[in-house]
Amino acid sequence: MNFLDEIKERASALKRTIVLPETEDSRVLEAAARIVEDGIAEIILIGDSEKILSDGNDLGVDLESCKMIDPTEATDERTDLIELFVDLRKHKGITMEDAEKMIEKPLYYGTLMVKAGLADGMVAGAASPTGDVLKPALQIIKTAEGINSVSGAFVMIVPDKSFGQDGKMIMADCAVNPEVDADTLGEIAVASADTASKIAGLDPKVAMLSFSTMGSAKHKLVERVQQATAKAKEIAPDLSIDGEMQADAALVPSVAERKAPDSKVAGQANVLVFPDLEAGNIGYKLVQRLAKAEAVGPIIQGLDKPVNDLSRGCSVDDIVNLTAITALQV
Ligand code: ACO
């Protein structure tokens, strides 16, 4: 069974409830119908139920089994969520009036449902930029205990099975933090190892990537990766992690033998932690295009409850797959 079929099968066993707020998008409606039909998760759609059902009809998909909530309709649930919102953000000066307006935005209503425990997770981004999906999640759901920074990982599946674990590996942060300090980078490494084992089924071996291997170059950016490695070891002393190292030393045993002979990670890494978002975002896209790798994600890691962000160019399959992954993160 391939990785994505396995993910969907594992999700089906959990019967989680996932919110899909972007019901104006036909791909979302098609995905919702398929997710429910295949038993991958229960779905909540945010929007006017008559319009959703009629749009579904036009698309030839059956959405009767999805729960539908209109965020503009006055209900007890909406009142409770507005109160929750004001309570969570009053230190930022939000008023009842602001909250009443903002909750009409499906991304806010959906995020508040997850926070309140009315849904297990949310998948959005088919019709919204990354920031619009992540900001409500960062403001309302916030980070999990002990984590200060949310980040974004990809499961990369490269055709050459000699890399990673049978060609499967995690790359992070490819999606969220434009600039990180050493402590944050260390946290991202630990969160990525968690994603590697929980979602990708890997036994994590984490390489902290740099343009230097084990002190071969001297630069403040190299020192930052060294400090991040130390931080990650402090947070997770049993984690198999090493750095700093170059990508070839991380992945290729013969290079590792020469550049980092004492490392238990070099040459066998299956979690690649990039030094910043520029490297991570460019790196995963190069591997995706040049090596014809499958890139599954970004999987947003470090939130207290799962919210995941789709690319606006996503397919119906991408929405179905990310919904399954979200169910596994709960
Ligand atoms: N982790 C945890 N909390 C965070 C993080 C983070 N990484 N970033 C911001 N926050 C919190 C802030 O502390 C703040 O909380 P508060 O309101 O309770 O004080 C809240 O989020 C909002 O903060 P802002 O400063 O308003 O948000 P910011 O402008 O930093 O935006 C965002 C956050 C949207 C994640 C921004 O960093 C961003 O745009 N990142 C790049 C996303 C991107 O374009 N990625 C590439 C495309 S994705 C792809 O190609 C796969």
UniProtKB/TrEMBL annotation:
SUPFAM superfamilies: Isocitrate/Isopropylmalate dehydrogenase-like. Its EC number is 2.3.1.8. Residues 3-327 form the Phosphate acetyl/butaryl transferase domain. It catalyses: acetyl-CoA + phosphate = acetyl phosphate + CoA. Keywords: Acyltransferase, Transferase. Pfam families: PTA_PTB. GO terms for molecular function: phosphate acetyltransferase activity. Pathway: Metabolic intermediate biosynthesis; acetyl-CoA biosynthesis; acetyl-CoA from acetate: step 2/2. NCBIfam families: PRK09653.1, pta. Belongs to the phosphate acetyltransferase and butyryltransferase family. PANTHER family: PHOSPHATE ACETYLTRANSFERASE (PTHR43356:SF3). This is Phosphate acetyltransferase. The gene is pta.
